[in-house]
Amino acid sequence: GIRLYFTYDTHSENYLETREGKNLPILHCRMNTEGHRLYGKVNELLMINTIHLNKYSFGISPQEIIRLSEKLGDNIEQIEFVGVVTNICVISNIVMFQSKYINSEIIVDASLCASFDKNFMKKL
After folding, report:
1. If DSSP codes are grouped into helix, strand and coil, which group holds residue 109?
2. pLDDT tens column, 58-73
3. What is the model's pLDDT at position 123?
4. Which residues have CB under 8 Å from 70's CB, separation 6+?
5. 75 pLDDT higher than 80
6. Beta-bridge partners for 11
7. Residue 3: φ, ψ to 5°
8. Contacts of 55 by beta carbon, 8 Å cutoff, 6+ apart
9. Is 86 exposed, middle or buried (0-12, 13-18, 19+ CB in 10 A)?
10. How far is CA 29 from CA 4, 13, 56, 75, 85, in A?
11. How many CB atoms lie within 10 A of CB 123?
12. pLDDT value, residue 66
């Protein structure tokens, strides 16, 4: 009954021209590049029953949440989040999922999260 989803920070060549790119001017996570793939042994998880979603903003899109809801239903007991850039990307995904799954228990496993903002991580 456990499903594992990966969201990928996904950018195109024009990233530096976007609002995000102007505030974080480092070209990264371009589609079909090494920087867009899962890192190290986590990449082995591609072989098990997982779902992979590109996200083009800090959080998953409302349309993607609706698509997942149609596939999974609305009665999900628990959703656990882990990831990097916790104070931006992970928290954005949490907000999106909490908006749809209002009765689900939302868990953040701080031991599997990371951020460049060390003060934020101390609060988890």
Report:
1. strand
2. 888 889 888 888 888 8
3. 67
4. none
5. yes
6. 30
7. -115, 140
8. 7, 8, 9, 10, 61, 64, 89, 93
9. buried
10. 21, 10, 10, 33, 13
11. 9
12. 87
By the 8 A CB rule, do 110 and 92 touch? no
Encode pLDDT of 112-123 as tens digits: 888 887 776 666
Amino acid residing at 52: H
Place of tokens 């990831």: 83
Query: Model confidence over 22-52: pLDDT tens digits?
Result: 988 999 999 989 888 888 888 776 667 778 8
Residue 70 half-sphere exposure toward CB, CA atoms < 13 A: 6
Please name the amino acid found at residue 16: L
- At position 62, the amino acid (one-letter code) is P
Structure-token match 């809801």, residue found: 69
d(CA 63, CA 93): 13
> CA–CA separation, 26 vs 106, rounded Å?
31
The pTM for the full model equals: 0.80
